[in-house]
Amino acid sequence: MLLGFNDSRPPEDSDVVVVGLGPVGATAALALALDGLRVTVFEAGLAGDGVLGESRASTFHPPTLEILDGLDVSAPLHEVGLVSDTYQYRDRTEGLVAHFDLAEIAGDTPFPYRLQSEQQNLVRIIRDRLAELPNVRLFENAHVRSAATDGEEAVVRVAGSADPEAPEVEYRARWAIAADGAHSPIRHALGIGFPGITYPEQFLVVSTSADFAELIPGIASVNYISDPREWLVLLRTPLHWRALFPIPPGEQDAADALDPAAIQRRLQEIAPRAEGYDIVHSRIYRVHQRVAERFRDGRVLLAGDAAHLNNPLGGMGMNSGIHDAAMAAEAILAAEAGDTALLDAYEETRRSVAHDYVRVVTHENRDMLREEDPAERRRRNDHLRRVSADPRLAREHLLRSSMLASRVSPDARIPA
């Protein structure tokens, strides 16, 4: 049931409150609801709103597709997605360095590819499913201020606007999942630290309808292009090609970086195009590497960006958040059945994946693309060539880059 938040509406009982209807909160809500729990979802904006969808996550890795398939939403996501079964490492000077084919991991997953599809497609698909379920109430324009544990319940305080003076309504449930984003009011209210770093450079993301496959023969749908001066990521989405560039600290004026002439220059340096590039969307944002000190406080579980942030190089942020959601739901379902062991496993496992795997891999990706030392660049490129040419090494590399190395099983939905 889709509802507008009304602070005069008496609260109704629910088993779980999910805060945030991004891909993480949506996945958690659906997993819990399909198992019969009464779920209340609070979304501060409009449920399934596609605003800024062009600049958000668009890569779904194999283990994520396994989870979504178990929730019966993989098929409709494929209908609006683009299958990408190869990716490349390139060098601005040398051209193609290494080509990887995910067919090498066909024996490890039923989805040996990445699916490119803007995250809002998944949110809309799940939102429509949730709206049909009788055990789900989905509130729009509901601003959650805090969540805490009170005995055997989670207590969530909600207002009908972002105004700090707006009246609050108290909702109680047996559990709460905070998928309320990087600035998570719940994480702040619980006093959970969020240590880490903010990169000195900002990132510029640009979308264009120009087809780079026609401009650069043999290019893959996903490309990591190294260069000591200006590295970039170039990938194809169902509607556009997207380019991601670093904006060095000395070029921090967003107005200058977003100037159409400056964007044209950057795109023309990738591949000359006489008629120029149409710019569908552009945005600058800061990038963080942060992991919450705790992923659980009593009956409140943190998930997704509320629990961890990482740079987008490798497409692991949204995916690891969806893995959080699946395991959080499984832990709550197990606890409702009398087994609380998975609650502790959730905290330990998901924080370890965020800190020791996602944080490390994405930081390594950045370092590799921006390496300035010529000898080290040659060494890394030679290593990638050897790995891509050796089936065993290529498979190991693909298991790591596809996140299957931190696999979430489709049955138990916890690391296998």
From TrEMBL:
Coiled coil: none annotated. Pfam families: FAD_binding_3. Residues 370-389 are annotated as: Disordered. Transmembrane segments: none annotated. This is NAD(P)/FAD-dependent oxidoreductase. Signal peptide: none annotated. InterPro entries: FAD-bd, FAD/NAD-bd_sf, PheA/TfdB_FAD_monoxygenase. It comes from the Bacteria. Keywords: Oxidoreductase. Residues 14-359 form the FAD-binding domain.
